[in-house]
Amino acid sequence: MGVSRSAYYAWLNRPVKRIAPELLNLYRRAKAIFKNSRNSLGYRELKKRLCKEGFQVSNYGVQQLMKKLSLTVTQRVAYKVRTKRKHSDSVADNLLNQNFNPVAANQVWAGDVTYLRTGEGWMYLAIVMDLYSRRIVGWHIDKRMTTDLVSKAMIKAYNLRQPPIGLVFHSDRGSQYTSKRYRHLLASYGIRASMGYVGACWDNAVVERFFGSLKHDWLLKVPQPTREYMRTDVAAYMRYYNLERLHTANGDLSPAEYELSSLRKVS
Description:
The chain is an alpha/beta fold.
């Protein structure tokens, strides 16, 4: 093994370094939390999760912990493709102007569509997010990107939340959102449409960040051999994102926890 006799006996006679049960538990939880995030949590986010579970750790301490346990963040480069609206379709005014922080739930929703690649071909995901808590309240995935795709995401969101009349839904100017069929769907629900400006990606920045997290932190970490596997994996991320992933905008609470804490304050 390339070790001298003296070094071997020195190692053999060296006392075993014992690890305290509390430290061992910290190691186990750090590994489990990091693995559950698909190796996507940086030291700041990992620290928040550990502190939430009662561990007393600092930023520097977590950095050293990640180094000791070889917890290395891995990221993959995603892809972005856009669609263009038909010139005959009408465009709604921009009602948000980059104000992504409503004061209550079910006041402002936002949505978009993204491309997801599998071994069998492309899948397309449409989401509806409540900007108050950043919670995904509706989503639909299919192998075709049509008005039906975004409509089903909105129908699921509406049936789940039953928002009041006057809610604002913000999107880009893609052909699915500007179509007459989709505009009629929003009108039937009493939802006001809002659309960002052409070429201004920051006009829907919160949703863009969600798609970035979905791809960089989750989907691109493992092979996606089939469309059915992708569908199941997206569903798993939605649960993780809504129930576990902490958000700085939410005071380091998950979307579900943030909404629950808001209800408690009201009551």
